[in-house]
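From the methods appendix. Each design record in this collection lists the tokenized structure first, followed by the designed amino acid sequence. Records were kept in a plain field format so they could be parsed without special tools. The example shown here is representative of the layout used throughout.

RECORD:
FOLD TOKENS (312 positions):
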């Protein structure tokens, strides 16, 4: 605005100079001209004054509009910055609450931008698609409180963390059948729990196997039961034909905070889900307690024979 005022003063000074020059010319003209000529000159003087004033006003008005436009542009920029700050605030606040992954998220964003700039549209699209898949998984975990394992190795890694999180009890129902338990990968699976029970005798480990009666007589199955028992795990086997089908679910409870569910799918695939949903944990806890009460029945309990003295 100061610049505009200075320019206005220059224009006004210029206009005044022009008027003075015109006035001097008119004085000279009056000294040597007739009455008609003087009238013509006076009219010309008025016209020149009007033109000069109009020019000055127009220039000043144009500069004022330019200044106003500049201010308007500046205001729009400031408003947009404010909007961006408002949009970014929840994101920044969210990152502040999870500092352990803030750097990882920044790397993902930078990598996506770098891929878009330096690689093909195909790779950029694939990267974006993978990020969107990951986002959907994260949202499902946040909304449902569940996580599904993709591989057996992933499950084993998570079981290790779950066992380390338990402070009071680890209670399991094995319901997938002898044919599966006799496979090498399940020998390794049971080994995680057996080793943990040996290292932490202060934590109560219990496992209930649901078997057909003839399976309880198979030497390999007996060795599985004995292996658990030798590690200090409270080990039971129930006749699955005498168990309510609603209780026939393979689960593991870590304290009363985390639940692992094994669901047999088509073929040999077993879907493994970790959840901390309180309602699901409560239902599985009641089912486990109901199965434990079945172990008091001579007709239903297949292992051990002196079952009543073994119930924790």
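DESIGN:
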């Amino acid at each position: 605005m100061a610049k505009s005022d200075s320019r206005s003063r220059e224009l006004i000074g210029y206009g005044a100079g022009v008027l003075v020059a015109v006035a001097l010319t008119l004085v000279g003209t009056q000294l040597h001209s007739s009455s008609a000529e003087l009238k013509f000159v006076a009219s010309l003087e008025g016209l020149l004054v009007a033109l000069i004033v109009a020019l000055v006003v127009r220039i000043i008005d144009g500069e004022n509009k330019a200044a106003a436009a500049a201010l308007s542009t500046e205001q729009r920029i400031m408003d947009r910055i404010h909007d961006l700050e408002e949009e970014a605030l929840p994101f920044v606040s969210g990152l502040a609450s999870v500092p352990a992954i803030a750097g990882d998220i920044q790397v993902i964003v930078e990598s996506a931008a770098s891929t878009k700039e330096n690689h093909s549209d195909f790779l950029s699209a694939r990267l974006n698609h993978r990020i969107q898949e990951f986002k959907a998984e994260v949202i499902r975990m946040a909304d449902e409180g569940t996580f599904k394992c993709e591989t057996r190795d992933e499950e084993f890694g998570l079981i290790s963390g779950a066992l380390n999180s338990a402070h009071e009890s680890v209670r399991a129902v094995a319901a997938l059948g002898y044919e599966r338990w006799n496979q090498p990968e399940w020998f390794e699976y049971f080994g995680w729990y057996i080793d943990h029970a040996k290292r932490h005798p202060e934590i109560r480990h219990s496992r209930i196997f649901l078997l057909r009666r003839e399976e309880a007589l198979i030497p390999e199955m007996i060795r599985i039961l004995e292996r658990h028992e030798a590690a200090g795990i409270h080990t039971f086997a129930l006749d699955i034909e005498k168990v309510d089908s609603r209780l026939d679910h393979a689960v593991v409870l870590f304290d009363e905070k985390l639940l692992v569910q094994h669901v047999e799918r088509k073929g040999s695939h077993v879907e493994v889900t970790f959840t901390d949903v309180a309602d699901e944990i409560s239902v599985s806890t009641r089912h486990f307690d109901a199965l434990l009460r079945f172990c008091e029945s001579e007709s239903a309990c297949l292992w051990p024979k002196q079952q009543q003295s073994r119930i924790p």
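APPENDIX NOTE: The chain has nine helices and eight strands.
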